[in-house]
Amino acid sequence: MCMKVRTGTVPNKVESMKFIGITGGVGAGKSEILSYIRKHYLCEIYLADEVGHEVKRRGTPCYTALVELLGRDVLDEDGEIHKGNMARKIFADESLLERVNSIVHPAVKEYLMERYRRAKERGEAELFFVEAALLIECGYGELVDEMWYIYASPEIRRERLKRARGYSDEKINQIMQAQLSEKDFRAGSDFVIDNSGDLTDTQRQIDGRLEAFTWRE
Fold first, then answer.
1. CA of 91: how far to CAs of 70, 96, 163, 193, 207, in Å?
2. pTM, rounded to two decimals
3. What is the pLDDT of residue 12?
4. CA distance 154 to 34
5. Choices 3.20.20.70, 3.40.50.300, 3.40.50.360, 3.40.640.10: CATH for 14-42+126-217
6. 204 — phi, psi (to 5°)?
């Protein structure tokens, strides 16, 4: 059973912290699952997309390298890298994608590992989560203690993406085809959560996996 504590109560300094990667295809419900975990467990959570934005801010080494590679026309009026401008630049020259990734991905990984080190030093969290669709491809399997694959059937994912994001079938097909297959996701993961059905069932799977950790009402 999980140890029950009052919301907001933090136990004595945590001596060890588990590093867990969360991955899965678009529309699988990773954000919903992390929202539940954030509410009920002593954890720190980082989303790779948000970190990617942080490491590209003006003044960072990543920013300097990207502007040198792509040119100053990718900047917005405030001098920051504009996501749309950068995407159009890469779309016009696909050879740039690998070079951009070789700059951004190491910067994201360095940022996350520094946050992990700091979290361990503070000793307030029992769990450290990193979420991204590309964790397996980017080699995080060698860094995390566990890799979780959030699964949902393709039909369910399509329905969610149409309802929540207004995506067309064409756009959904394009995204899904660019991501790992279910077989590859499962092969690169230590634990699978089936998020195809009722949220209560998904929560039961999470709680079962994390039963050794502090639970907060």
1. 12, 9, 27, 34, 42
2. 0.88
3. 67
4. 20
5. 3.40.50.300
6. -60, -40
